[in-house]
Specification:
Length: about 270
Amino acid sequence: MLIDSHCHLASHKFEASELDDLIARATQADVRAMVSLATCLEDIDANLTIADTYQNVGVCLGIHPCDVHNAPDDAVDVISPLTSDSRVVGIGETGLDYYHPAPDGWEEEAFRQRQRDFLEQHFLLAKRSGHGVVIHTRDRSGCQSFEDALEIYQRHASEVRALFHCFIGTHENALRVLALGGLVSFGGVTTFKTARDVLEVAMRLPRGTFLLETDSPYLAPVPFRGKRNEPAYVRHTAECIAAARGEALDDLLAHCGQATLDFFPKLREKMEG
């Protein structure tokens, strides 16, 4: 089953008027379901409305690390009552972003600490709600955001499962996530000629330990690199990874699809109505 496990259908890069065509193109590409993630309080309603309209779209709710300075201190508490909604399948997108500089008026370490505090709160919310957590990490160099996120995950791994999305780290770091019971997901970057090391990680991981995603409207795979991404394009990533693994495409889709539904069990319920 081909599933786009991470997209942003409420992004300003997608006009509401084109969503019917966007979902239709995904269906034509045999994409059976999509998970659309909120990144701030302001786009929650739009995501929930989309999930109302399309039975094969589930929603995750969270505050993106690049938006924690705009969010009120009680943002996660605001999200909490919504986690029991049948349209909600997970918590996120949350995480740590050390790539972008601190916004005006913020010192770097204070901004990073606020991200870590919010990530901790998302894990506690996931524990209360029974959902998994979708994590973003990004660094300008090195992997400190990953290390800090993994340290926080370790404190909650016995009760909460985490998905490190758009994974571009090393094989060893992927195994550290898996050892805690978590998963990683791969997007269009795996198709880039300049990212052969990422594809090699996808080649080496065991069946059932990784998911497929687009992160659309960002990071479109080859042959659409540099253009706006969309859920239909997850098929190109799947084909690239299957070929690199020497695996039949249907087999890859079967174990990636099952891993996705295991991580987002509420997505299966929503698909089935």
